[in-house]
Amino acid sequence: MPDPFGERPLLTPAMTAGYDAVPEEERRRLRSYLEAVVAVRPASVHTAVAFNALYFGYDLAGDGYGGSPLSPDAFPVISLGEGAPVLPVGAMVCIATGSDPLFAEIVHKEGAHPELGPLGEVPIWVSGAPAGAEGPGRPTGAPMPCRRERLVPDVHAFGSALSLSSAQLLRLRTRRRWIDEDGHLVVDVRYPSPEAAQRDDLTAYAEHLLTTARDQLLNPYVPVSLAELVGGTHDDDLRVGLLGLLDTVRGVLYSSPALRTWGHYAMTRDRLAAGLRDRGPLGGDDLKSLVAAVEHAATPAKRRFGLSSAVTEYTAVGPRLRAFPGSADVLRGVGYAAAVFRANLALADAVRGDSDRGLFENGSRITLDDAFEGGGIWRSHHPGAAEPAGDPLVPAGRGWASSLAPAPAPSRSPEEGPEPEEDIEPVDVPLADDSDLGLGELLRDDAHAVVWRAPLRLVHLRGGWFPLPPEAVRELRCSPGLSRDTEIRLELDHTGQASADMAVQAVTCELTGGRARLTGITWPQDFFPGLMLDLSLPRDGAVIRLATTELDEPVRFGDRVTGHCFDPRVVTREDVPGSDRNGDTALGLGPRALVLRTVRRCGLLTLDGHALQDRSVLPRAAYGRRPAPAQVAVLMGAVAELFAERVLEPAVGSRDAWGQPHFPPRAGQPTIPLIAYRPVRQRVIRPWGGTDAGGGKLRAVQFVPGHLRRLRPGCSPSDVQRAAFREYCRRLGKADGWELPAGYTFVTEHTRGH
Fold first, then answer.
1. Which of 55, 436, 593, 742 is most enclosed, with most CB atoms within 10 A?
2. What is the full DSSP assignment across 483-533?
3. Which part of the chain has CATH 2.40.330.10?
4. Quick check: pTM over 0.85?
5. Tens digits of per-residue pLDDT, 448-492?
6. Tens digits of residue pLDDT in 245-291
7. Which class would CATH give 441-566?
């Protein structure tokens, strides 16, 4: 069985680039260990918890993290019913008890909204609502929203030496002062910003490790340090590498044939099968009852006369499980996390196997609406055939979206007939002032040359031209031998898909008319809107040199991957769906692409390339006129899907007396909901063993970072290895004095293969 402290480290540099970059042999070893971790942990295992086991060295023999490098005294302290810091799943905590501290690992987290009913009934607006929402259509205006959450701690994760006895735990649950009767923590969490409350689980955990638990992350006693894997301690390198490791762990869990996954959680198939065979509380029979209850929740009672109106019901899994007789014992401790996992998976399997994309034979449509609140909120709607059929297992947040949607138009009388369908052509409505977008910058104007820099725009790319600044125009007009409109030599310096015939081009220099520009340019195929261009015009006026600037390594910005410098504002504004060098139109776009295009084209634009769109005017901006109610519903459904997938995020701004939106919200102005496009700039790391930029073959040599290795009984490390470990600690920024822990040696970095 592979071991984090074994002969060969389980973590490798390739894993910091994500699952797709990891060779299959390394995946296989990692999969074997993680399958064993999932098998021995009593609850469903979250990706962050699986990462903890791998990174900090979880002992499968029963000691857990008891022999790990973790320092429990440094864990954040929390208590029942009080305010708590932001604690994602995977966080190590100290639960205050008034006597002996209770150390635990958070293995499950969900919303504990006070309006969830005892039978799982949910007010419509709660499903999918942002943190701190105060009512239907009323997002919080507070800059630091507060949300009530249920945290499920594993109080036995640190082995018997750091765990309380069963009698002590029973006494704590009975008193309900430090933990509740189920052994959980219900706390009010205040987030530093609305954006922080919307982070996905893995991003939130990465931020926790890089801030609150940074010393824990960079502890030199871990099997293989993240700093060693990425080759430094810079925050950007650590963040990208950490997210890559989490993606690798998630991919390995998803790919295991021995596991079933739901969201970020995993459980063995054997344990799931045993649970379905169980005829006790929350066993197979109760799960079948749960599925049937959700399926028929919205089915209206038969009426003798007339048609039944549409019915929508929302069911929260966690509270609904408590309504089953005898479930109290099953839902104590980490058993709650396992029960919620099994219930959600049973509902998902029923939707996959017994329905047509969520539409059941009884006419009801069942979809997951909120994956966080109450352990998961499922939406039952009847009749479901009239609703658009999206992915029923992608949380859509339709409950909250419906509280923001405009009131339906009054129904037409039978004499008037049905409302006519409108064929509305989508058009762009500029809502933000972009007069300074893409303006060039003069770098030098001296006796040798005029040098300037400007981003490539979509109109330049499509028209094959580029503007000239006044300084260059003045120089060209003074150059002997050049007429008003004449050909000039353009030399292109670009590393990419530029062919040899593009390196030197004869272009026209237009100096007359309303604007001065170079025309007749043939742009390379990999040029895109926002690419930064550096141009120089020597004083002899005979040639213009155009060059791109390479980055140290490729980066991903939104959907764009590039190895060259770019202007993030232009990329956000112009590198949108429906736009390329062959055209720029919204016609033919689906609702998701239309929403993305509208937010990026029409929203308020920040200096780092974020776009924020006033939600109330999104339909008007997307279609160019007031759209039909059905079009509005489809558009807002697409917004909910993009929110659930974290492609877009909800935000809060304000509106001034002239009707203009502002972000961040200004004091004294009414708040308004915004839709935010926040592209993340991430490094794209070329993994060891992968192909290089030139498309070379696989490398035969694999780099192995420095790491700790467990020694056989009776063995001890040499003085050379002790000295190497002290040097390793200094590279991590640790003070002198760190010594190898007993029973371990240090393996210096080396290469494997030839």
1. 55
2. -SEEEEEEEEE-SSS--HHHHEEEEEEE-SSS--EEES----TT--TTBEE
3. 441-566
4. no
5. 889 999 999 999 999 999 999 888 888 888 776 655 667 889 999
6. 999 999 999 999 999 999 999 999 999 999 999 999 999 999 999 99
7. mainly beta
